[in-house]
């Protein structure tokens, strides 16, 4: 069956209006024009109460709906509802009915009511590029326009997630087919071509219900001003959609001297190229992207988008093993520290900073502060990855599962979300769920590197060694500089009984480590299968010393279970407990409860 036709829950949940709030179908809660961030459990509780507005909902029903059979403490529902009430503000919207449950006590209107005006869903496809047009520009301009419109806080339109839209577009779906898969009402598509000394962007708006073209327009800019296309496109879309007075300017720093317009345009064009290049899994392209972003930030210090991308890219490269954690942390601190009032001016950089605070600085209070200050940010591939990995490093598996499931409702065709959900089930020791998730991901995204990486590990661990070996071997051949893929290949060989070949790969990684930084986080599992527990502990100790971003997750990895009685392993596990204990006195001031969950 064609993966693009697989039955996914692409239809988002029902939208509601109540009091001064609006809950959009994609899960965005707004109070007037401000976004109110809700953690996944609180969002699920709110949806349940809104769906049964005026009725009493018992604590048992809330527990079953939100935790889906997972055992939780008796006060979990009380904590969840208390947190939800705090986020909704002083209004008494949720009534407690003594010994019976909870009731939403204000008037609730469903958004599909034509008298209320339904929110329309818009998907923005990457633009096709013609002869003499740099290939990256089609995707870069669409993505920039998408980001600007997503930040404009539409009242009648919702911009759909980038990953799902781009993934389906890469499969060659037409605008109408893509819109049908995502449950969109409108799809923006088009082409970018070079005409003499100008670039022309032809933008088309397609109505998904019948495939008709409801708007088309040509945008022309000089060849040396390509960076202005996405701004003009966003402005025209805002006008066409009838959203007057919205602010859609790109992020920029305040209180800086004026910059020559030509230099600003040049910096922005370099930024667009860097932004495109770093979102790959290829070491040389990511490093080229970093150089472009550094150049853009140097040319135009007010271009905060470049600083945000640099921080996110550096942490991503540390995850992949393309940059040492020390170098990554240095760059993140440098660029976050260069932005005045970073929580206000550049909150998207905070998840990267929080990640460095935990894994490199070992400063849990600072990490919690960074994630707390960025809690209002909506889902995007980077923010959700940082939040889920932060939860996994703290061994908060149910929190990570809830977060990823909520993100998949918004972004159902994101390969990384599906793969990471399978990995989370694995760390939570839910083996059947882990295998089901990764098999589903493989059926949807058979060529994706992240799916192949996690798939090879999880399938080998659960006995499907031959399939796992083929996956890992293919990935290692395609990405020879991806150390985690090489380690996964060694793991599948060890599980298949090919111990000499597995040891040979580990030796090559060891020799390679004398020339450059090598990420060894997945090596201990290979040593465990080979029966060399001392080497496994030594590799873990090396991960701890280098501040490996996978270190704390590896301590929960079921593949390392034979190491858990070892005194050194217990000492390492105690480091995470020490970090958690370190922050308890500060939890309440940071908006977290005594167990380290959002309050």
What does this molecule look like?
The chain is α+β, with helices and mostly antiparallel strands and 599 residues long. Strands 8, 9, 10, 11, 12 and 13 form a six-stranded mixed sheet that branches. A five-stranded antiparallel sheet has the order 4-3-2-1-7, with no helix packed on it. The radius of gyration is 24 Å and the shape is globular. It has four domains: 16-110, Winged helix-like DNA-binding domain superfamily/Winged helix DNA-binding domain (Arc Repressor Mutant, subunit A), CATH 1.10.10.10; 120-240, ABC-type transport auxiliary lipoprotein component (Rossmann fold); 251-377, Serine Threonine Protein Phosphatase 5, Tetratricopeptide repeat; 382-585, Tetratricopeptide repeat domain (Serine Threonine Protein Phosphatase 5, Tetratricopeptide repeat, Alpha Horseshoe). It has helices spanning 40-51, 59-67, 76-88, 136-150, 162-170, 175-182, 229-240, 261-278, 283-299, 304-320, 325-337, 342-345, 350-359, 364-373, 381-393, 397-410, 415-427, 431-444, 449-461, 465-478, 483-495, 499-512, 523-530, 533-545, 551-554, 567-583, and strands at 16-18, 21-23, 29-31, 34-36, 94-97, 101-104, 108-110, 120-124, 128-129, 157-159, 186-195, 198-207, 213-222. Residues 1-12, 112-117, 244-249 and 586-599 have low confidence and may be disordered.
Layout of helices and strands:
Elements: E1 16-18, E2 21-23, E3 29-31, E4 34-36, H1 40-51, H2 59-67, H3 76-88, E5 94-97, E6 101-104, E7 108-110, E8 120-124, E9 128-129, H4 136-150, E10 157-159, H5 162-170, H6 175-182, E11 186-195, E12 198-207, E13 213-222, H7 229-240, H8 261-278, H9 283-299, H10 304-320, H11 325-337, H12 342-345, H13 350-359, H14 364-373, H15 381-393, H16 397-410, H17 415-427, H18 431-444, H19 449-461, H20 465-478, H21 483-495, H22 499-512, H23 523-530, H24 533-545, H25 551-554, H26 567-583
Parallel strand pairs: 8-10, 8-11, 9-11
Antiparallel strand pairs: 1-2, 1-7, 2-3, 3-4, 5-6, 11-12, 12-13
Helix pairs in contact: 1-2, 1-3, 4-7, 4-8, 5-6, 8-9, 9-10, 10-11, 11-13, 13-14, 13-15, 15-16, 16-17, 17-18, 17-19, 18-19, 19-20, 19-21, 20-21, 21-22, 21-23, 23-24
């Amino acid at each position: 069956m064609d993966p693009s036709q697989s039955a996914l829950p692409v239809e988002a949940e029902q939208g509601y209006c109540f009091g001064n709030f609006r809950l959009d179908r994609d899960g965005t809660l707004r109070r007037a024009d401000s976004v109110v961030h809700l953690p996944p459990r609180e969002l699920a509780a709110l949806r349940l109460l809104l769906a049964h507005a005026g009725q009493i909902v018992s604590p048992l029903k809330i527990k079953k709906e939100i935790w889906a059979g997972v055992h939780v403490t008796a006060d979990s529902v009380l904590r969840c509802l208390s947190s939800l009430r705090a986020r909704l503000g002083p209004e008494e919207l949720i009534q407690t009915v003594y010994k019976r449950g909870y009731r939403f006590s204000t008037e609730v209107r469903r958004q599909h009511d034509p008298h209320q005006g339904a929110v329309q869903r818009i998907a923005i496809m990457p633009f096709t590029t013609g002869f003499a047009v740099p290939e990256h520009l089609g995707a870069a301009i669409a993505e920039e326009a998408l980001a600007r419109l997503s930040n404009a806080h539409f009242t009648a339109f919702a911009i759909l997630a980038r990953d799902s839209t781009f993934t389906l577009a890469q499969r060659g779906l037409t605008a109408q087919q893509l819109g049908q898969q995502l449950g969109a009402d409108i799809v923006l598509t088009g082409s970018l071509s070079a005409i003499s000394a100008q670039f022309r962007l032809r933008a088309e708006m397609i109505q998904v219900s019948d495939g008709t073209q409801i708007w088309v327009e040509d945008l022309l800019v000089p060849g040396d001003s390509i960076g202005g296309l996405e701004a003009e496109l966003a402005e025209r879309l805002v006008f066409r959609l009838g959203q007057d007075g919205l602010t859609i300017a790109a992020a920029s720093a305040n209180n800086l001297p004026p910059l020559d317009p030509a230099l600003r345009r040049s910096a922005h064009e370099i930024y667009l190229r860097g932004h495109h290049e770093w979102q790959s899994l290829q070491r040389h392209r990511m490093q080229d992207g970093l150089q472009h972003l550094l150049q853009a930030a140097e040319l135009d210090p007010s271009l905060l988008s470049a600083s945000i991308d640099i921080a996110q890219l550096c942490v991503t490269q540390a995850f992949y093993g393309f940059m040492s954690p020390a170098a990554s942390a240095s760059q993140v601190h440098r660029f976050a520290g260069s932005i005045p009032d970073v929580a206000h001016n550049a909150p998207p950089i905070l998840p990267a900073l929080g990640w460095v605070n935990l894994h490199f600085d070992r400063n849990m209070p600072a990490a919690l502060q960074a994630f707390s200050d960025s809690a209002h940010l909506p889902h995007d591939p980077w923010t959700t990855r940082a939040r889920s990995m932060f939860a996994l490093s703290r061994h908060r598996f149910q929190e990570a599962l809830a977060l990823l499931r909520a993100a998949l409702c918004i972004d159902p065709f994101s390969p990384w979300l599906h793969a990471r959900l399978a990995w989370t089930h694995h760390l939570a020791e839910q083996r059947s769920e882990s295998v089901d998730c990764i098999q589903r991901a493989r059926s949807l995204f058979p060529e994706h590197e992240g799916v192949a990486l996690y798939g090879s590990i999880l399938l080998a661990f659960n006995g499907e060694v031959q399939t796992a070996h083929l996956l890992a071997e293919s990935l290692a051949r395609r990405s020879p500089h991806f150390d985690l893929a090489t380690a996964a290949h060694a793991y599948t060989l060890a599980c298949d009984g090919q111990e000499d070949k597995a040891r040979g790969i580990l030796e090559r990684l060891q020799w390679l480590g004398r020339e450059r930084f090598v990420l060894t986080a997945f090596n201990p599992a290979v040593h465990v299968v080979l029966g060399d527990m001392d080497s496994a502990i030594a590799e873990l100790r090396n991960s701890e010393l280098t501040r490996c971003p996978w270190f704390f997750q590896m301590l929960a990895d079921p593949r390392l279970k034979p190491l858990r009685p070892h005194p050194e392993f217990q000492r390492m596990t105690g480091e995470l407990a020490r970090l958690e204990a370190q922050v308890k006195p500060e939890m309440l001031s940071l908006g977290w409860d005594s167990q380290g969950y959002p309050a």
